[in-house]
Structure formats: structure tokens, C-alpha cells
Amino acid sequence: MDTPATLPRTMWFERLREDIACIRERDPAARSSFEVLTCYPGLHALVLHRWAHACWHMGLRWLGRFISHVGRFFTGIEIHPGATIGRRVFIDHGMGVVIGETAEIGDECTIYQGVTLGGTSLGKGTKRHPTLGRGVIVSAGAKVLGGFTVGDGARVGSNAVLLQPVPAGATAVGIPARIVQKSADAQREEAAAKMGFSAYGVTQGDDPLALALKGLIDNAAGHEHQIALIWQAIEKLSARSRELPAGDCVPQDAATEEHFDAERLSRLVK
Q1: Residue 30 or 220, more confident
Q2: What is the CATH number assigned to the segment(s) 9-180?
Q3: Following CA atoms 52, 55, 61, 63 in sequence, which dihedral angle do they give, to the nearest 10 degrees?
Q4: Domain definitions of the chain by residue range
Q5: For a pLDDT cut of 70, what percent of the chain falls above it?
Q6: Bridge partners of 125?
Q7: Residue-by-residue DSSP string for 150-210
Q8: Which DSSP letter does residue 234 get?
Q9: Helix, strand, coil share (%) of the chain residues, nearest 5
Q10: Computed from CA positions of residues 38, 42, 46, 48, in that sequence, does the dihedral angle turn out positive or negative?
Q11: Which of 28, 120, 229, 262 could be cross-linked to 196 through a Cys-Cys bond (beta carbons 3.0 to 4.6 Å apart)?
Q12: Can you give the pTM of this predicted structure?
């Protein structure tokens, strides 16, 4: 990320055009560039922050804080002049957004109203505020507190209180926030589909029944796979030792292939 203090003056207008373009791309309510330029407080806050950040890095600390204070007064968005913000960042609506001194926001990020990028430490000169990777989305009311990193493409759910790092592409939800891995959910849904049963068709979210069904699916998928492997191994060993056809040395009801009784699990949740 470039530092505004070192950014060529001719590039400031290019950044402004980028900001306007990204807002029009991500907000269907934006009807024209003139409307974005004149009516979007998130854009105004970013422009003022660039000036405040430049003053901060030139040693004009009071002036940087004063520009930040003016921006907060007119936009309702408080960005410390020491914070580092990348390109094409969109602060939507923005009222109540607070971004701390050591926060770093990557390119293409989207931040909604009521978000706090705050710290949990009082030590000066330390990394107290979070770092957002590229393309992170922080939903309305979320609190991201601490000097950790939120990975590229991650999402923080509305009103979540995030106190730990988030891997790239994952989602954090809840109070305190827990990490939801997309890959794990996809694998579970694939296993459920193979079994002929889907827990998501019954309940969703944090419902205890949904959590119990997810655990059942994970365990059933693992057990079925292990049992099938065990019987396959027994079948091969028995055939070698007795020189019999492989199918004659295993009971007729041996589960050499993975099978899951979806109807039985469905009856349990009715």
C-alpha cells in the first residue's frame, strides 16, 4: 500500500476516480459519479484521511488530528490519521465507523456502518489494531479488536465481536466470533449428499439440532469410510491365505462399500 505522504500529487485525482468507480460498482443505489462525489460520506472521509495521513507522516501530528476531527464532524466516520488504507476501499453509509491508529486496510475492502477496528492494548508504539487483507468485507456493527490479521477475502458478520485472526476466505460470526471455514462446510454438504441426507434442509445456523446433525454427518461419514476400508483389507487377506475367490471369504452383509441410512437419521429428527 502506498503512503499518501509519498504519493505523487498527480496520483491523488486518479485515486479519487478509482474510489468513485468502486462505489458505483458495489452500490446499486449510486446513480452517477456526481452523486457519489457529493453525497457519499465514506468517500469524503477517505479523501480527508489522505490529507490527514500525509500530514501525520510529515510530522504535522496536530494538523493531521485536526483534519481527522473535521472529517469525523462532517461524516460521522472517525479514522485516525496514522491508519493505513489501501486502494478502492468502500465505506458504505459509514456512520459510527471507527478506525484506530495502527489499523491497516487492504485494497478492495468493504466496511459498513457501525464497524470498529479497535485495539485491546494500551501500549504505545505497538501494533494494537487489526490488519485487513485484500477484499475483506466487514459487515454492519462488527467489532474487530486486536493487532491480528484478517486474511484476504474473509468476511466478518454483522455485530460480530472478533478477537482472533481469520484465515483467508473464511467467515467469522457470533459473539465472540467463531471461524466458519467454507471448505469444511462444502465437504460436509458433499458427504451428506452422498448419504442421501442433508442437515441443512432441516435446520440452519446455531440451532442445537443443526449442530448435532452436523456432528452426526461428520462421524457417520468417517465411520463408513473406515469400515469399508477394513472389510476390503480383510477380503484381500482372506483371499490370499485361502486362495478362494475374494467374494467368498467375506460375510454377505459385510459393508465393503460405503452406505448410509438416511431414512433412519431423518426419523430421529422428526
Answers
A1: 30
A2: 2.160.10.10
A3: -70
A4: 9-180, 184-268
A5: 70
A6: none
A7: EPTT-EE-TT-EE-S-B-TT-EEETTTTEEE-HHHHHHHHHHHHHHT--GGGT--TT-HHH
A8: H
A9: 45, 15, 45
A10: positive
A11: 262
A12: 0.65
